[in-house]
Amino acid sequence: MTIFWLTNVRLEKGFIYENDRIVATETEICHLKIEGDKITEITNEIPNTISNQHDAHGQLLLPSLRDMHIHIDKTYYGGPWKACTPITKGIFTRLEEEKELLPKLLPTAQERAEKMIELLIKNGHTHIRTHCNVDPVIGLKNLEVTVNALKKYEDVLTYEIVAFPQHGLLKSDSVQLIRDAMKNGATLVGGVDPATVDRNIEKSLNTIFDIAVENNKGVDIHLHDPNTLGAFTFERMAYYTKESGLKGRATISHGIALGDLDGVELNEITSILKEQEMDVTTTVPINRATIPIPTLDKLGIRVSVGHDSITDHWSPFGTGNTIQKLGVLAERFRLSDEYSLTTALKYGTGGITPLNEKGKRVWPKVGDDATMMLVKATCSAEAVARRATVEALFFKGKKVESKLEDTDLVRV
Amino acid sequence: MTTSYWLTNVRLETGYIQDEKGVYETKTELFHLKIQDGKIVEKQQQSFSIPSGENTVDGKCSLAIPAFKEMHNHLDKTYLSLDWKSPTPAKNLKDRLRMEAMELEELAPTTKQRASAMIDLLLSHGSTHIRTHVNIDPYIGLKNLEGIKTALEDYSDKLTYEIVAFPQHGLLTENVIPLMKEAMRSGAQLVGGLDPAGIDRNIEKSLFEVMNLATEFDADIDIHLHDRGNVGFYTVDKLAEMVDASKWHNRVAVSHAFSLGEVPVTQQEEIAAKMSKLGMSIMSTIPITSTLPPIELLDQNGVNVYLGCDGFYDSWGPYGTGDVLEKVTRYSELYRKSDERSLAQTLKYATGGPTPLTKDGEVAWPLVGDKANLVLVNASCSAEAVARTPEREAVIFNGKVVFGKL
What we know:
The complex is a heterodimer of chains A (412) and B (406).
Chain A: E1 3-18, E2 21-35, E3 38-43, E4 53-55, E5 60-63, E6 65-70, H1 91-122, E7 125-133, H2 141-152, E8 158-164, H3 175-182, E9 188-192, H4 201-215, E10 218-222, H5 227-243, E11 250-253, H6 263-275, E12 279-282, H7 293-298, E13 303-305, H8 322-332, H9 338-344, H10 346-349, E14 372-375, H11 380-385, E15 390-395, E16 398-399
Helix pairs in contact in A: 1-2, 4-5
Chain B: E1 5-18, E2 24-36, E3 39-45, E4 56-58, E5 63-66, E6 68-73, H1 93-107, H2 111-124, E7 127-135, H3 143-153, E8 160-166, H4 176-185, E9 190-194, H5 203-216, E10 220-225, H6 229-246, E11 252-256, H7 265-278, E12 281-284, H8 295-300, E13 304-307, H9 324-334, H10 340-346, H11 348-351, E14 374-377, H12 382-388, E15 392-397, E16 400-404
């Protein structure tokens, strides 16, 4: 078992109040003993052993990040620049493009997926939930690529793979393919707009949940359908979650309709989702009404961010930088005081923040996995607002390093 | 500068090509640029052999794009270089102003230091022109102006700048008009203003005093206008009337101007036509929490639109980057400009006009005779630079490397 000390780590200690308002964050310099994959000691006393020390130079320690919605199987990232083509038939322009594009990208798909994983670890992620196309064009070939790429990194991160019928589960007759995908490395059943794409809400959802139950897996469905149509689909999804006994294992991705609802309607739908412990992933889009993230959080719905795309034929924008995305989230919802900025971190860490709402340190604790990152900032609020850079990343006690050959690093 | 040198191996755009499906891509080639007295005096293909004995600086195949203009900043307000501090929540604009007034004294001694940190940040992202607003108010008087002036003077070989005298706490209050006059005599170059309705509570008088100061000091105008809806629209319309009456063509800008995005399109078109005729400009910071002025419509109607980062890391807001190129990325993402030519053309909002290619693919920049103000980026073309916000390898102002290493 490897034992080392991570010394001179800045940990958040509490909030500083002025007239009952949180105005700043108090931090202290600590030293952490890491044994195997765990943190086994946290102390203010400088350890007397000089061997096996990694000096953090006063950088802030934060929980590492999770990208909860990305497509690592179809990206231009890592390859030559390519803009998007103009859209002429809405989403179907993109789907038609995939017929030609996916086979064309296949020979370099694994290399690109790996470069994307590299970008994500560089930016402090130790968990990736990727959607992976399973469709009549590419069959299970992208899945194979995705599994191979992620397997290479399983010592530095955890991952989930959603079998994603991008061309419609029913519309493109992909039911059997999804079933096969679940036996070949996919860990969640995906779906996309049961109304608009599959044109049969009940049958689409029913099939998704059937496959999930057969394989004892969870569900993560892309839902872009707006307002009442989206809300109705959420409600039916909650119904199937309950019927299938998948409470706590169903995710709504995007959930655009949540941005169209207000007041009573929003309260009603969120209480239904909450009952089934359904969660939501979002990219915090800036080009449409964003779902009301802080409100959903208050109502007890767990929201996580994801990058979706870094650059592909759907969009040329994207950074793979979750700290930056949290900054955009904060800006979008005007989270600008110390406490609000501090809480924004949880949307990127699976809910973990160093301090709880009372200002008590709840992370890191002795016995926690040593999965964490060092950032250049003096507190969480600063890290979010000013886009702190990630200086080092640890996964289960191990420092995460790039696996790319030096020659590959030239244009990543 | 009298010494000349060749900036070798820079990637420049030479046209658009269309594939068999009609999709545009950007064609680029490597060039050597001869730079002398701050200007590009020769432009040669890579195959050209540079006469021996002439100085060379290797551009390492980076893409060259025109340098950026940061057209709306508040150098005097930032906390940069001080310890982290988050803003205190304010109930409304009045409350925010009250809190700012309390803080101004405390910040005054470090104005030059803080402004310099902001200038360094802007420069590192490629801006070689800065328009900054500086508070002129009853609390701080001309103190911030002095600090900003000395800070900017130190950078006069690295960038150009304009200072706007900005009555942040109202123009029609207390002794602000005499202070503004004092500021105009003490180094401020433009007359600013703020919400004639929302703050000054007298639209006509507020605008009249702004125009009056401008004509008295033969200065341009740049007013902050956050007033929403029709009262904001009326303010722009009334300002246009005064600009016309004073013949202050090509000298007036409105910053923010959210209201222009909040009226029906026909009214947007009418005001755009008026503004275009008067040469009025719009400055936007591309907020994601507010309506934007209709940038594309304004642009198509001949109104110049510029971008800025606004003040940041200050009592008003904790987020920002000082990167005008990122503002263009954000603009493109907001308006779904995602094909090659749309991306490439939006670069003009960062540069204040020039793009390497025209919409039709004609080479427009750099041409022999152009000022050697350019940014080298790690990208294959402007479209990629706009979409991906790449690292800045170097920033060159009047032929001199002012950021980065070459």
